[in-house]
């Protein structure tokens, strides 16, 4: 079985010092936990840019480290931007693309998301491609909209003949920052359809679908059959909460594989 992906984006909640302390705590939990030791879970952590090198060092051997964004270009007169080439150079393996906050706060369009997805793949990074609907709807129509977003985001890379792995993070916009995630049946219905859609992409074998959007401990056991993992935010600010999720990874494994 492929490992369950458990990711955490720290957004801009922590200072650098607090991020370092958190990474130390997470590394301690991960090294001791059988879900990580035995390969049932694969962790990734996405801190702010300035904390990436420290996170890479502290989490070496227990978690992949990623960046929260990347430039569309690999080099140039682009003040304030960080390229996929540099992100990969310092040890990142994944990078967020198209998060709803980037779209809402910084005006990122579908065209920008296409360019950033291509930039990630051409630099050997796995894009964490964020997709989701603005308002609740019928799961079938929501899944169609998310599939459209995935197809559009990958279109430039596919036209260039690029391949690789993609992590699709399904995050309903209305659930981001909310008191509770989407209902388990809703998540399962949308993510199940997304998984089947990705299976048809022979040039992106090994791609996965995870759920974010106020994801928290206790959710995985209710949706594990139809997702490949969770993308956590503020509900993983305590190392103990991440440990609870890793416990769920073990309990969700089929009998005979534990």
TrEMBL record:
GO-annotated biological processes: gluconeogenesis; glyceraldehyde-3-phosphate biosynthetic process; glycerol catabolic process; glycolytic process
InterPro entries attached to this UniProt entry: Aldolase_TIM, TIM_sf, Triosephosphate_isomerase
Pathway the protein contributes to: Carbohydrate biosynthesis; gluconeogenesis; Carbohydrate degradation; glycolysis; D-glyceraldehyde 3-phosphate from glycerone phosphate: step 1/1
Enzyme class, spelled out: isomerase
Pfam families according to UniProt: TIM (PF00121)
Enzyme Commission number, as recorded: 5.3.1.1
Gene Ontology CC, one term: cytosol
A GO term, aspect molecular function: triose-phosphate isomerase activity
Database matches in SUPFAM superfamilies: Triosephosphate isomerase (TIM)
Major localisation: cytoplasm
Keyword Isomerase: yes
Key word Cytoplasm present: yes
Keywords assigned by UniProt, alphabetized: Cytoplasm, Gluconeogenesis, Glycolysis, Isomerase
Subunit structure: Homodimer.
Family: Belongs to the triosephosphate isomerase family.
Name this protein carries in UniProt: Triosephosphate isomerase
Organism: Sinomonas humi
């Amino acid at each position: 079985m492929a490992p369950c992906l458990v990711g955490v984006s720290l957004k801009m909640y922590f200072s650098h010092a607090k991020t370092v302390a958190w990474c130390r705590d997470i590394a301690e939990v991960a090294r001791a936990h059988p879900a990580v030791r035995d390969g049932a879970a694969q962790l990734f952590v996405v801190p702010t840019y300035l904390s990436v090198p420290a996170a890479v060092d502290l989490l070496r051997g227990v978690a992949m480290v990623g960046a929260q964004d990347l430039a569309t270009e690999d080099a140039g007169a682009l003040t304030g931007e960080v390229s996929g080439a540099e992100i990969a150079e310092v040890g990142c393996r994944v990078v967020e693309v198209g998060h709803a906050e980037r779209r809402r706060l910084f005006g990122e369009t579908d065209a920008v998301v296409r360019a950033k997805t291509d930039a990630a793949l051409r630099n050997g990074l796995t894009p964490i491609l964020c997709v989701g609907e603005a308002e609740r709807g019928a799961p079938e129509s929501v899944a169609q909209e998310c599939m459209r977003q995935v197809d559009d985001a990958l279109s430039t890379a596919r036209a260039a003949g690029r391949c690789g792995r993609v992590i699709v993070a399904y995050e309903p916009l209305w659930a981001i920052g909310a008191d509770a995630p989407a209902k388990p049946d809703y998540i399962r219905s949308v993510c199940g359809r997304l998984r089947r859609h990705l299976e048809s992409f022979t040039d992106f074998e090994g791609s996965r679908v995870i759920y974010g959007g106020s994801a928290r401990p206790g959710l995985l056991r209710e949706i594990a059959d139809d997702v490949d993992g969770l993308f956590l935010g503020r509900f993983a600010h305590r190392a103990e909460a991440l440990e609870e999720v890793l416990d769920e990874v073990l309990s969700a494994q089929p009998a005979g594989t534990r």
